[in-house]
Amino acid sequence: MSGSLEVRKEQQQLQQRNLETRYESSYHQSRLSSVSHQSYAAHVSSHGVKTSTKKKEKKISSVSKKDKRARLAVDTEEEVIGYVVPVFRSSHLATKELMESQEEVKEEGVGYVVMRNLFSKDTEFKTRTYKKTRETSIRESAERLALSRKIHEKDEFQRRMNTDSLTHPPEFIMKPRGQTVWEGTNVTLHCTVAGWPKPRVAWYKNNVVIDAKAHPEKYITESQYNMHSLEIKNCDFTDTAEYRISALNIKGESSAFASVIIKRFKDEEKVIERPHGYSSEYGVTFNTTIIDKFGVSFGREGETMSLGCTVIVYPVVKRYQPDIVWYRNGVALSPSKWVTMHWSGERATLTLVHLNKEDEGLYTMRVNTKSGFDTYSAFVFVRDADVEEEGVPVAPLDVRCHDANKDYVVVTWKQPAVEGSSSIMGYYIDRCEVGTHHWAQCNDTPVKYARFPVTGLNEGRSYVFRVRAFNNAGVSHPSRPSDPVVAMDPSDRARLRAGPSAPWTGMIKFTEEDPTVGVVPGPPTDLAVTESTKSYVVLSWKPPVQRGHEGVMYYVEKCMEGADTWQRVNTGMPVKSPRFALFDLAEGKSYNFRVRSCNSAGVGEPSEETGATTVGDRLDLPSVPGPIVPIRSTETSVVVIWGASKEVKNLVGYYIEVSVNGSGIWVPCNNKPVKGTRFECHGLNTGDKCVFRVKAVNAAGYSQSTAESEACIVQAAIATPSASTGLTLLESARDYMVLGWTAPANNGGAEVRGYYLDYRTVKDGVTSKWHELNLKPVTTTSYKVTDLKENNFYQFQVRAFNQAGLGEASKPGVPLECKEWTVALPGPPHGLHVLEVRKDSLVLLWEPPTFNGRSPVTGYYVDFKEEDGRWRCVQERSTKQTFLKVTGLQEGVAYKLRVHAKNIAGVGGPSESTDAILAQTRPGTNEIVVDVDDDGVISLIFECSDLKEGSKFMWSKNYEAFTDSSRLTVETSGGRSRAIFNNPSLDDLGIYSCVVTNTDGVSASYELTEDELRRLLDISHDHKFPIIPFKTEMAIELQEKGRVRFWAQVGKFTSNCQVEYVFNDNIITQGKKYTMNFDKNTGMIELFMDSLEITDEGTYTFNLVDGKATGRTSYVLIETEFAELQKKSEFERAEWVRRQGPHFVEYLSFEVTPECDVHLKCKVGNIKPATEISWYKDKIEIAEGDEDAKKIGKSADELIFDIGKISKKDAGVYEVYLQDERGRDQTLLNLTEAGYQAVLNAVFKVIANSSTELKVTSTEHGIIVYSDVVHYLEDLRVGWLHKESKISQSERVKSGVTGEQLWLKINEPTEKDKGKYALDIFDGSGSVKRVLDLTGQVWEEAFEEFKRLKAAAIAERNRARVVGGLPDVVTIQEGKSLNLTGNVWGDPVPEVSWIKNDKPLVCDDHIKLKFENGKFASITIAAVSTADSGKYALMVKNKYGTEAGEFTVSVYIPEDEAEKKE
User: Fold this and answer.
1) Which H/E stretch holds residue 5?
2) Average pLDDT in the 901-930 region?
3) Lowest CB count within 10 Å: 274, 1128, 1278, 1345, which one?
């Protein structure tokens, strides 16, 4: 048993050593524990392993199969006899080679490396067995527990670990080379690709994917250890092509090309080629078409955007779908929480969730099929989200993590395009542990570099990082978090990244004492300063060669240049990573650095010094980029190119900014830096004149912006015209033909300058070469071709040209025969074109036919049809004009039009039809506007917002060019043209149209009729001789102190307007009597007079002059109006004098509260404490001791007399006096007769309005209709109505008042009492009615309740009851007789019975029961005894009820009788 324990101890020590030195990952450790004995035995047997059995071991008990798998020495009876340990030569050297191989080969599994190092040599193995003592077994058990704990911690560490950010795109270390070989030979293309994750590769021939599995006889592909090859067997001439290998992983795609040329031996040999892209697997060639493409898109941070295209793959093969791949800036995308992809079988969609600036870029959709691939690309722009505070910078972008180690990582980011109102002063870096939501700031002092080393991480934890920028205005939003990164040793990460390896087939065992245990580590090597900025310095080094098997940590020391004292930087805690960032160094000072290694054995010797390092920025700002040049591209975009920055390191990219010329507002064109020197700025407004500038950016910051570019108008670049259409034969003779055609639909952005024609002969279907017809361009859309041969056939084509050059040729028409036309009918019109397209109309213009037939053309007919409909004539009668406005079109429908000419002989053939024209009013369409300016000039104005370079406004009358320029003057400025009538008259009547050349048919027209001309001439006259309008004519008002104010308000005037004040035709001026004012801000004219005298009667006038405009307004103040105004003025002046002392602001009046209380009140002003206030009633002063004095109240400016509920005793005349040294004032209120009645009427109104709606209730006598009020007075008139008729009082129907309730009682109601009841209450002037419809359910419920109550009352009156005569208790001596009589009532006469102790009594000799006259019930008990004691009751009962009259009888025995009995 001890031998078994010793063997297991050796095994545990080996596992512990492997764990501490981290030679294998947790995955390989688990593989070690599951290796079978059979696998090992099979392997060692092939290498001739010898087994030594010199020492005999004690036989140990058998174990289970599970335990046997962990043993390697078993006897024939399957009993474990020991543990077989392989021993090989030079074990330390082999271990060292194993370590070096694992450092060099990052993508190979550890198991494979161990196999290669163990079994690639001719090594002899031996077998040894060991015995274990009891002491060893106990110690081994304790070590096993410690090892289990470490293994558990290791598993926890692996479980928490996330995928790190060390992935990188594919890169070709060695590219395939082109080859030229002879036919029949084999060709092999080789390349080496690096990348993580390991890239997938595919070979293409002329962009068609090569399927080696489908053609094994032709192609062989191999991929081993990142080396890839393509072998082409038995090459023939068709293998000549460009071959491409594409490597793809999640970080991107990279391609390499190689050309293969096959040389032939015999030129006459024919080669049969298959169609390009032919797929032998499916037997077809797939053709791909992409439609419904997404365009240039704009989004904002935080929004969701979807991009999509419809993909058509033909032919359709069942169960075959193309492969859709999406790219951003050439890097393949994969699904994530930010990106989702969908393929429906027809449409490919890419959805960007929660947009961020990192999502900006060129998006490409690639469709891969068995026959090749097709792509489509468009740019996506992402605008910044709105900032919370004005002027703060926007968020940084593209946060990434690099050089991750156990407690250290470098975070980089890109600066934003917008710095805000001031330059960015620095950045804050935040970190968050994966699985939590707590963000911690990593730096207290902001950093200016876009790169920062983060230290103090916990080993094995995963982190994400984000960055915030700040300037003087505040801090930006945080950036999008980085991808998670694990704080761990890079070698561990490399081993994890290698993935599963080959199974473990052996066991490494060290039998002798490990000489590296307890060894002090040596000095680190290759110490260097990798980064140096004003904020920090970063050191890096390599671990020491001599370090033992345990972990190594480091101390960093610094020394200022010129000093001999070394200072340890990280005294508190040594670092685990071979990287370290030093902060808080003095800028401009020079330092030396060195590093020491340490472990449990001690601190090692220092490394070599770095040499003097000056603290400062090593990376300079980029230099200013070269000049920027804008180039027109489309209607909403401009292409800009610039020179690259010449002095720049680690360039991140460029930011381009745009500004409308003269605005001074700069807007970024891109929110993600671009690395090229060419960029297309989208999203601009057509017609804007824009300037551009660019700045470079690297980790140090931004360069200065370039100088502004030249201004560039945003509009489409000029291109050559499109092809002309509608080439038609207009006339034919023996030796000439006249051709007509339609101008190109797209002139390319510039005016068409002319046309060139080509011709060729056609004979028996064979055509000759094309020849030029005209050396000089034709400026019209028709041309006479001469010097032709009769009866020969010709074909023609036309080319338009503009400033950009010669456009496409028209399609050759059918061959035309040159022969004489002899028909009498006219030829077809030509030159059809359409103007003024609107949603329900258009204008068609054409040119007369060149061939009129035998008589002149007398008119034209216009036909139209829907695109797939039949031809219909537009007008019933022909028109002699060469234009026609077609109306009645349906919006959104496309129409074609054609024209027939007619003469005396008849109607000729139709012209070539126009292209389909969609009836619609395009956005931004303007019409011609008629304008009459301030000088009375009449003009027509047309504006165009779609003006392009070279565009002109072409005015015409009746769609013909002007012949008389003296009648119309045209002025054009920018996108506005004005046609001015020089002398409007009847000669100017007609249709005026304006066409803007070099646009997409921008045109409009205006018809000037005789009535319209007269209206315009009237307006022109008013403008030539203007009248100043008044908002308000002169008016008069009386002001304080009796002051008189004359005023008027002007509606429209200028600052030069002057006012003349006139009284009775005499000009008056400012002085003592008159005060004048003209407010030019509001147009208010005022004239003030302090008082009116007899001489002021007359007419007052304001005369206005404003340039050539005049205005006048007057007010006549005479006779009665003057006298009344003068009287009011004097009164107002007297009132003003009164108000100088104590006075009444509001005179004495009364008010009635909602509770019907009457208050007398008045408001006073200018009161002092010494002012005397006196109240009088009927000329008698109310003294302080009077009862009415309690009713007087006073507030700050109000006096109150509270009458309360008014009655006749309150009638009288009330007066209030105010008096002090400044004056005296009084007020009076007469509350007698009419005054008293007015108060009552006000009270009546409150009462009437307080009445509730009529309600109904029932009693035993009848029905009551009632309403509640807040108060009631005897003088209040109240009337009741039934069916609109007044109700008379009677015994059956009565009305009255109880408290505050007005009621109407209907006794013994009948069906006649149903109907509408109304309560009419007088409210002082009219009446208030409350109505109740006592019918239907209301009547039924009330009547039923009445009957129920009546029946209950009758029952209560007539029910049987004992009304008296019976005592409660009767005490009687034994032997005596008892006689009791009870009085009974009931109708009908009740039944009478007696009970004793709840049992009925029966009449017998002892008890006599009588009931006499239906009223008296008596009971007689002769000679009572104690047995007669008990509770008795007289029960009476009839149909209305039952009642019991109870009493108690107590029989007692006298004392002497009791003694006798005893």
Assistant:
1) helix 2-21
2) 90
3) 274
Contacts of 698 (CB under 8 A, 6+ apart): 450, 619, 621, 622, 648, 649, 650, 651, 652
d(CA 760, CA 589) in angstroms, rounded, equals 87
Cα gap 1264→1266, rounded to integer Å = 6
Residue 687 region by backbone torsions, left for phi larger than 0, else alpha for psi between -120 and 50, else beta: left
Interatomic CA distance for residues 927 and 935, integer angstroms? 23
Token digits for 169?
A: 């795109």
Single out the residue of 664, 717, 673, 670 nearest to residue 691, CA to CA: 664
Beta bridge partners of 366: 325, 375
CB 44 within 8 A of CB 27: no
Per the listing, tokens 């060894």 go with 519
Q: Quickly state the pLDDT bin for 481 (edges 50, 70, 90).
A: very high
Structure tokens at 1001: 């048919």
pLDDT of residue 70: 38
Q: Could you give the residue ranges of the DSSP H alpha helices within 106-180?
A: 110-119, 134-160
CA dihedral 1412→1413→1416→1419, nearest 10 degrees, is 10
Distant-in-sequence, close-in-space partners of 1423: CB < 8 Å, separation ≥ 6: 1375, 1376, 1377, 1406
Torsion angle in degrees (nearest 10) through CA of 1285, 1290, 1291, 1297: 80
Looking at residue 1151, what DSSP letter applies? E
Beta-bridge partners for 556 = 595
Angle at 1035 between CA 1033 and CA 1038, to 5 degrees: 165
Cα separation, 395 vs 466, in Å, equals: 10
* Residues near 1051 by beta carbon (within 8 Å), at least 6 away in sequence: 1028, 1029, 1030, 1031, 1083
Q: Quick check: bond before 197 cis, omega within 30?
A: yes
Question: What is the end-to-end Cα distance of the chain in Å, rounded?
Answer: 113
Exposed / middle / buried, residue 447 (Cβ in 10 Å: 0-12, 13-18, 19+): buried
Residue range 458-464: mean pLDDT, rounded: 90
Query: DSSP alpha helices (H): ranges in 597-750?
Result: none
Position 511 pLDDT exceeds 80: no
Q: Are 1143 and 1226 in contact (CB under 8 A)?
A: no
Strands (E), 974-1108: 976-981, 990-996, 1003-1008, 1030-1038, 1044-1050, 1058-1063, 1066-1067, 1074-1079, 1084-1089, 1098-1106
* Number of Cβ atoms within 10 Å of the Cβ of 58: 11
Q: Return d(Cα 391, Cα 475) in angstroms, integer.
A: 10
Choose among 556, 592, 558: nearest CA to 574.
556
Q: Is the peptide bond before 315 cis (omega within 30 degrees of 0)?
A: yes
Evaluate whether 1062 touches 1068 at the Cβ level (below 8 Å): yes
Q: What DSSP string describes 481-524?
A: PPPPEE-S-HHHHHHHHH---SPP-------SPPTTTTPPP---
Nearest to 435 by CA among 482, 484, 401: 484
Q: What is the dihedral of CA 1144, 1145, 1148, 1151, to 10 degrees?
A: -160
Q: Is the dihedral of CA 1118, 1124, 1125, 1126 positive or negative?
A: positive
Whether residue 906 has pLDDT greater than 70: yes
Q: Kind of pairing, strands 628-634 and 1074-1079?
A: unpaired
Q: To the nearest 10°, report the CA torsion of 89, 90, 96, 101.
A: -40
Confidence band of 844 (pLDDT split at 50, 70, 90): very high
The alpha carbon of 1094 is separated from its chain's Cα centroid by a whole number of angstroms, namely 76
pTM over 0.85? The answer is no
Q: What number is the average pLDDT over the span 44-49? A: 38
CB 311, CB 324: distance < 8 Å: yes
- For residue 487, which amino acid is it? A
Per-residue confidence (pLDDT) for residue 1368, from 0 to 100 = 87
